[in-house]
Here is the input.
Amino acid sequence: DRLERLCLYLARPPLSNDRLTLEDDGRISLRLKPPYSDGTTHLRLSPEGLIERLCALIPRPRTHRVRYHGVFAPAAKLR
Here is the structure.
């Protein structure tokens, strides 16, 4: 049961299917969770534009995923 839950967690999509809709003109409409400060509630993207935004979320290979600042930084004088 725990292994199945872990596999489901790892295989989850980056966006909920409930938030994505395909428009008549071929664009994809993404409903935002909180609206932007200007009142925007949906983003209309081409399929390529959506893929570009998803690819920007993937970290580059062999890079650190956690950066420490302040006292926890590698060259902090208070360490």
Remarks:
- The two ends are 43 Å apart (CA to CA).
- The longest strand covers residues 28-31.
